[in-house]
Write a structure and sequence with these properties.
The complex is a heterodimer of chains A (112) and B (119). Chain A has strands spanning 3-5, 10-14, 19-21, 24-26, 33-38, 44-50, 56-58, 64-68, 73-78, 87-94, 100-102, 106-111. With 112 residues, chain A is mainly β. Chain A is globular and about 40 Å long. The N and C termini of chain A lie far apart (41 Å). Chain B is 0% helix and 45% strand. Chain B is built from no helices and ten strands. Chain B has strands spanning 5-7, 10-13, 19-24, 31-37, 43-50, 65-69, 75-79, 88-95, 109-110, 114-118. In chain B, the strands form two sheets. In chain B, strands 2, 4, 5, 8, 9 and 10 form a six-stranded mixed sheet that branches. In chain B, strands 1-3-7-6 form a four-stranded antiparallel sheet, with no helix packed on it. In chain B, strand 4 (31-37) and strand 5 form a beta hairpin. The radius of gyration of chain B is 14 Å and the shape is globular. Classes of the chains: A mainly beta (112), B mainly beta (119). The A-B interface holds A 6, 32, 34, 36, 41-46, 49, 51, 90, 92, 94, 97-105 and B 3-4, 31, 33, 40-43, 45, 48, 50, 56, 91, 93, 95, 97, 102-103, 105-113.
Chain lengths: 112, 119
């Protein structure tokens, strides 16, 4: 069955430290992978994607993600966290007809 | 407007009543999606429209749920005889669909959602 897993409900990081939000997937064929961010009372915003090419992809707000085919992972990273990065982060993978299936989300809390 | 617009932003209704939620996609986007997001959970796919093709209704949880879209414009999601378990945020998204680059047509743009509370 096709699925996306975000194993951590919440990640706590001190401001200035590197952060990682984990995502693993199970899908047939070559995956299209996405990260979206949801700020309180706002819609989801596209952050970055992997479709093909370099395994390290860069996105908005200094975020990047590494596609690892052997581990079927697509972890979100940032070298130095900001308090304003605190939000809910969703990983998604494309299945048929441009539809996405979504992870349950990870709440990222950056403490000053 | 430049983004996806949803209305109302909040809806409180009594159990058994019907509700209608509206979504205005980004102009030129042929694909439109409805999702349900329960508190603390991820997005649950409901329905997908692509141009004039028959919609993919495979995610609708029951026959109380229905959705329509006129051409490539506004969509309405209707929930009949609402139940307390229908309480959630309903999100609408649009994308370029089959046009544009491989990247562009895969990015979904979301509205702020409608928070539905069934008492």
């Amino acid at each position: 069955a096709q699925s996306v897993a975000q194993p951590e409900d919440q990640v706590n990081v001190a401001e200035g430290n590197p952060l990682t939000v984990k995502c693993t997937y199970s899908v047939s064929g070559n995956p299209y992978l996405f990260w979206y961010v949801q700020y309180p009372n706002r819609g989801l915003q596209f952050l970055l994607k992997y479709i093909t090419g370099d395994n390290l992809v860069k996105g908005s707000y200094g975020f990047e993600a590494e596609f690892n085919k052997s581990q079927t992972s697509f972890h979100l990273k940032k070298p130095s966290a900001l308090v304003s990065d605190s939000a809910l982060y969703f990983c998604a993978v494309r299945v048929r007809n441009y539809q996405l299936i979504w992870g349950a989300g990870t709440k990222l809390i950056i403490k000053p | 407007g430049a983004g996806v617009s949803q209305s109302p932003s909040n809806k409180v209704t009594e159990k058994g009543k019907d509700v209608e939620l509206r979504c205005d996609p980004i102009s030129g986007h042929t694909a439109l999606y409805w999702y349900r997001q329960r508190l603390g959970q991820g997005l649950e796919f409901l329905i997908y429209f692509q141009g004039n093709s028959a919609p993919d209704k495979s995610g609708l949880p029951s026959d109380r749920f229905s959705a329509e879209r006129t051409g490539e414009s506004v969509s309405t999601l209707t929930i009949q005889r609402t139940q307390q378990e229908d309480s959630a945020v309903y999100l609408c998204a649009s994308s370029l669909g089959f046009s544009g680059t491989e990247l562009a047509k895969n990015i979904q743009y979301f509205g702020a959602g409608t928070r539905l509370s069934v008492l």
